[in-house]
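hi! just following up on the protien thing from before. the input was this:
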Amino acid sequence: MSRISPYLHLFTKTRFYKKPERLDSSNRHSFSSASLLKKGRIITSSTKTAASTRHTESHSESHSKSPETQNLLNFQALLKASNPTTNQPRNVSTSHKMVDVSSTQINAPKLLEKEESDDFNAVFPELVRFLTEIPEFRDMPETNRWLARVLQYNVPHGKRNRGLATALSYRYMADELQEENVKLSYILGWTVEMLQAFFLVADDIMDNSETRRGRLCWYKVDQNGTGAFNDSLLLEGAIYLILKKYFSGKDYYLDLLEIMHDATYKTTYGQSLDTRTGQGRKMETYTMDRYNGIVKYKTSYYSFHLPVALAMAMVGIKDSELKRQTEKVTLEIGHFFQVQDDYLDCFGDVEVTGKIGSDIQDCKCSWLFVTALEQATLEQREILLSNYGVDDETKIGKVKQLYIEMKLPGFYQAFEERTFNLITNHIQQMSPELPKRLFHEMLAKIYRRSS
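and the predicted 3d structure came back as:
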């Protein structure tokens, strides 16, 4: 076995990795948040066969319920056990500044248990050290120190959902949990987090944002200004240095490169449409079709599809139908997530979200605006078009007040419940060769979120 970094206590011989249970028709007991994962043995043999041959989940028939119905009931029991207040109504304030949706927010199952999340976090210092100690760049000590600062400020301070989802996806899909591959799934997860940081640094510059994750945006720190855009490119470049270092000897290396490039290009495509849509305040072009296109490419692919696609490459899943089903559900979850994000930008608690909303003054093609425009009377439409997209507190307040008068907070909550149920049903219809519980957990993680 190759030498393991002292940073990574998880790779000792006494460590037992946990492989999550699948939510299928053979698991008919109630689930609690403490039983999301079960212990599995460490596999250290290098002769393990490739995981491209998938094991089909067993299907024992129920005398009283179909497997699909039982699966759904099992998941609902899990959700109820993790949060007994799920079905309680949420309090919504009538202030034009904020609608508080956090009072009964669901405590969704964690993507990884705390110990494993700590193990995931422990990998990051090793990656920073690798990136800043590359022999080829030893004659650039000042830039190496700057890169370390860029990485440490922008990468590890979010919720890390995308990175943790990558690691969890591998755990669900791997036939056996090999010590080396568990670590590689963590490393791969951090490349997704670096991609996220790359996008956010650039996006904050374009949007003139003030805060991100409860702190000043990177371009606002020490008067970095537009020079911070080059730092976003450093973050993107770091991804491919890491992939080359840790994965170039793997037979799926080219698949990882292709998946990462594809997600990056699709995201920049969506960002392009989003940026151009807000220019010139051409709000008559803000339609739900345009909104859906922006969300699909700007958010859904890299935030929800990418982590699962990378894990599928790791374990050798190449079946086109399984890929199609995975893409469909992850894009739906991504759309759900972005609608939530739009709502929280306007009505979320800044102390919880860590970000000062700016969609109204930035003239964003947001779900709230498009929905309001579709339902507005002629008078309401005039108020929207004359006040939206202007950086003036009075005009911003008028837009928020109109949203409340049009009952958009209630409309959003109805949309949230309806969409959650729809996606849950779509997950139940997926092939038994896919770990449905993974997608249930991804959905539960964002359900009724407040940040």
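The first strand starts at residue 18 and ends at 20.
The chain has 15 helices and four strands.
cheers
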